[in-house]
Amino acid sequence: MTWRDEAACRGANPEIFFLGYGPGRGLGRLSKTAKARALELCDRCPVVDVCLEYALSLPATGDFGIWGGTTEKQRVGLRKARRQHQPPRSGRTLQEAASM
Q1: Which contiguous run of DSSP H or E holds residue 38?
Q2: Which of 18, 24, 95, 100 is the most buried (most CB within 10 A)?
Q3: What per-residue string of b and e applies to 85-99 under the rule 16 or more CB within 10 Å gives b?
Q4: 17-76 residue pLDDT tens
Q5: Contact assessment for residue 63 and residue 75, using Cβ atoms and an 8 Å cutoff
């Protein structure tokens, strides 16, 4: 069993999360109603944190829709904040690297 099997959205219509879902459809904006319905499901989802981490692991260029209770715009901000707070690639903190 995976986290997706436990998701509150399992079996829900994907179009409330991803406008334009399916072959031959262009991407567009989610309606306020669809976004609200998606976020309601996320609010009661037992795996919302895992879902968000999954979404943040995707390349930003292919990331769209509602994932882990967040919109695309919110995830852009989360990715930016994470990049700004990452330790140096050596795994050391800035203080540890400076004291060497």
Answers
A1: helix 32-43
A2: 18
A3: eeeeeeeeeeeeeee
A4: 886 544 444 445 677 888 889 999 999 999 999 999 999 988 876 678 899 999 888 888
A5: yes
Q: How many CA atoms lie within 13 A of 77 on its CB side?
A: 5
pTM: 0.72
Q: Which position has the token pair 């109603």?
A: 33
Contact present, 6 and 42 (Cβ < 8 Å):
no
Distance CA 92, CA 100 (A): 10
Cβ atoms of 14 and 37 within 8 Å: the answer is no
